[in-house]
Design brief:
Porin
């Protein structure tokens, strides 16, 4: 039987496999998959987090949807989140390979303390970031996320689109 602690890892593996299954003949994905990692600060808890995301692209002009999964570890606490990020790209303020974005995220947050019962909350956060398009065709980013409602107070994340 799979314990509750392994559910987030199973979800990340499923996301990566589903993205790989959408590969076209030239192995270029329609929706790029990437990895992310960083630091999370929530009340008196400091954690490292890592995860995966899928860049679903624009839903409207300059507005993009990027769902992601993250797993936070540290301070006797395991936190798993499933986020739906909606961001606005400031295309008129960018030059060359650099870009700016800001937006919000609605997330399902699962918290499992080492001593205590796990719980799940719906959280809301604001985010802003800087993107960089590299010569190899991949994108990287740095992001700052601030919790507004039942979310980590501060998250600093770096990420890279692999496919």
């Amino acid at each position: 039987m799979i314990r509750g602690r392994f559910a987030p890892l199973l979800a990340i593996a499923t996301l990566l496999c589903a993205g790989a299954a959408t590969a076209q003949g030239d192995y270029e994905l329609q929706y790029p998959i990437g990895v992310r990692a960083g630091y999370t600060s929530w009340e008196n808890v400091g954690q490292m987090h890592f995860g995966a995301h899928v860049a679903m692209g624009e839903v409207m002009e300059n507005i993009s949807f990027t769902p992601n999964l993250e797993l936070g570890l540290g301070d006797n606490l395991t936190v798993a989140t499933i986020n739906g990020d909606l961001t606005w790209s400031f295309s008129e303020m960018t030059t060359g390979a650099w870009g700016l974005y800001a937006g919000g995220s609605l997330g399902l947050i699962w918290v499992d303390p080492e001593l205590g019962d796990a719980n799940t909350d719906l959280g809301l956060s604001a985010l802003a970031g800087l993107t960089r398009h590299f010569a190899n065709g991949h994108d990287g980013f740095f992001e700052v996320r601030a919790g507004l409602l039942d979310s980590p107070g501060l998250k600093l994340t770096v990420g890279y689109n692999l496919f």
